[in-house]
Amino acid sequence: MVKNTKRTRKFLSSGGVNKRLERGTITKKGKLRVNKRTKSDPAAIALAKANERRKSEKMKEAKEKKRGEEAFTSDTNLGDMDLDSFLKTVADEEGIEDDGSSEGSETEDVVMDDFDSGEEDEIEDDDDEDLEAAEARMKAEMAKLAESDPDFHEYLQQNDTSLLDFHEEASDDDSGDDEDLEVDKESGGNEDEADDEMKSNVVIVDTKVLKAYEHGAFKSHGLKPLRKLIAAYISACHMSDESSSGRSHSSNRKKFVIESSVIFDKLLVTCLAKVHEEFHFHLIGNGAKVSREGKDDDDQQEEQDDEVDEFDENTPLNPNKIAKSDRYSYLKPTIQSFIKATLHLMEEAKESKLLNFIIKSLANYVPYLSAFPQLSKALLKMLTLKWSSTSDSTQEFQSVRVNSFLRIRQLALTQPFPFIEMCLKSVYLAYARSAKFANASSISSLLPQLTFMGNCVVELYTLDYASSYQHSFIYIRQLALHLRTALQKKTPETLRVVYCWQYMHCLKLWTAVLAASCGKPNDGDDEAGLMRSLIYPLVEVIFGVAKLVPSTRHLPLRLHCIRFLHQLAASSETFIPTTSLLLEVFDLKEITMQPKRVKKRGNDVRGVRLPVILKLPKEDALRTGEQLDACLSEVFLLLNREVDLYKFSAGSPEFTVRICQRLRKYAKQTKNGKYRAYAKGCIELCENNSKFAVLARTKLHEAPKDIKRLEVLKPNNAPTMGERYEMAIAKERRLEAAAQPEVSSAAKKKAEVAREQEIRNAEIRKKELVQTNDKKKRKQRMELNEGDLKNVMALEEKDEIQEGVDWSASEDESSEEED
Known about the structure:
Layout: H1 6-13, H2 16-23, E1 24-26, E2 32-34, H3 42-70, H4 83-98, H5 106-125, H6 129-148, H7 150-159, H8 191-201, E3 202-204, H9 207-219, H10 223-237, E4 255-257, H11 261-283, H12 297-305, H13 319-323, H14 328-348, H15 352-361, H16 373-387, H17 395-414, H18 419-435, H19 443-461, H20 465-489, H21 492-498, H22 501-519, H23 527-532, H24 535-546, H25 555-572, H26 579-583, H27 589-592, H28 625-645, H29 652-669, H30 673-697, H31 721-739, H32 745-783, H33 786-789, H34 811-818
Parallel strand pairs: 3-4
Antiparallel strand pairs: 1-2
Helix pairs in contact: 3-5, 6-7, 9-10, 9-11, 10-11, 10-14, 14-16, 15-17, 16-17, 16-18, 17-18, 18-19, 18-22, 19-22, 20-21, 20-22, 20-24, 22-25, 24-25, 25-28, 25-31, 28-30, 29-30
């Protein structure tokens, strides 16, 4: 029989597994995890009382037995024993001494029960040995500091002796206030002592104090100096609102006073740039793996096998791994206070440089927010506000928007699912609300910002196709419902909902999202196919918008829709014919009429800019030479692009027949040599492509019905549809930039002032519209009666939605409307 070890005997004598399970659960490494909820559990309370009663009865029996043994007249004493009984007792005692395997009589059980409480304290003390090891390192560092810099050590003794008192480390309250982290042990006393205590709690942060905190927190890895440094940082973040909010410190909490702007800047830079290293050290780094005395070799080997991974800001951290750290409960309120103070500083900061530094520094803290979901939501809300802000149009604030989106993308990558869905919803609603105020007067100033925001949304929606599909489906369906309402009612209000810049920008965004999803390689992933399945409903919505009001005035809007369809066809390599929409333009009576002459308006030589308008003027629509030239140039450009997109298709010759017939008829009707040249050039392009396709089809081995690829005639070295589309867009942009007239510096300044004024006016209109919508919603809620709620027939009514897209509503209200 193998002899049990000393540790096993102690474990059995203290009650074994049952005793430990009564107090909590046992981890894989044999540690005790105390169940804090047992205090409020009636069954646990009854079990504890029963154990106490049983233990007290054992103690009473042991005392009575001991009292009986001490009595002279007891059975075990010599007073009442005869010779035979005495010899028998001696023989029994010798037999017990010879038997080495029989351990633990009733008296020994009582003794071990008394020892159990001391053993429990010893097990619980193991959790504090990490802090003791840190104190030992801190003492050694301070001893070296006393030898190398005695003046500085003397200064610490006079001004901040708490850094040298290591025995008070365990007295810190982990569940204290998030902002005021240091609580003194004793409170009370007479009034003079209270006044002295209040004076001693005020710490003036200067260079030496800051240096001491940095040395203790970053070099010695002390937890108490780290918390003091963060407490000073929190005070610095709330300096602006300390007096206004009436934020006061109690007499037993330290108050940090920063009198110098240099110290303020240095404190912010130090905390934002270095505190994350200590969080990593104490939670998942070497500080979380401090070896303890008294551990078995097996436990030490397990800890050595758990290697600490290198920190990567874009790699998710398991919240369970952070929570299992021994120092997590000690650092949890500190991390929460630090992030809350940083968010408050972001809200109060006005300078672009300061905001840039704060947002860049948050990159090192975002992975740790996986254990704090509420803080992640607050940070996402703040970053979205900065990313979509239109209050500042300077180049410096543009970098703030870029860095804000990078942090939003990092949150989507590092936070546990389904946080990415919150990011997708937040950025799209922010984009839609900004697009609402991009009307004809301010589109030129807001268009660059909307383009940037659209590119950011596209980037975010290509991270996770499964989540993106669900949100894309919901929002595309919402656009389709608004279009259905406009088709059914055709009132000015419903048509205004569809024929506006907000609706068109949303169509443009979803076109770009689906084009980017189809343009990326699949790699055998079926999730990208989900996004591809949304192309058909989006194409139907775009066709419905283009044919909703087939009037001459809305010709620019139809040309915008044709561009969206070309982008989808090129990215997905799908045949989406738009020839009918383009050829309908030549059937308008205004095309063949002689244009009117309009007087020149000063020095304005820009003409009609189709990319920034949705409809022509109400008077003389498509009757001026500028309007006619702009629209027909755009029509011929899109016709040539469509012919180029499908030139490698097996049905290209049949596809171009209708185009050639209509253009030949138009060339005979028009009297303008410029437009006649455009028509002949497009006809020549169609004929060349037809000849190539007829010759290439003779070399195919498949029958027409067996051909499944659109570009079956494409040579190996020829660019694809997407590449040809990108080259055409790049060429168009170069020509447009070259055609722009030179603008003087005075005109540029004037345009910049006008742009800023447009942005301010848009902000004012945005606030007024939000207030108006809130009033309407309150009125609608007041008019709702109980009869409407009890209307059972409402379940049989058709699917209807609220007229208009109320993008200015809050996110919670928007989610209710979607549900």
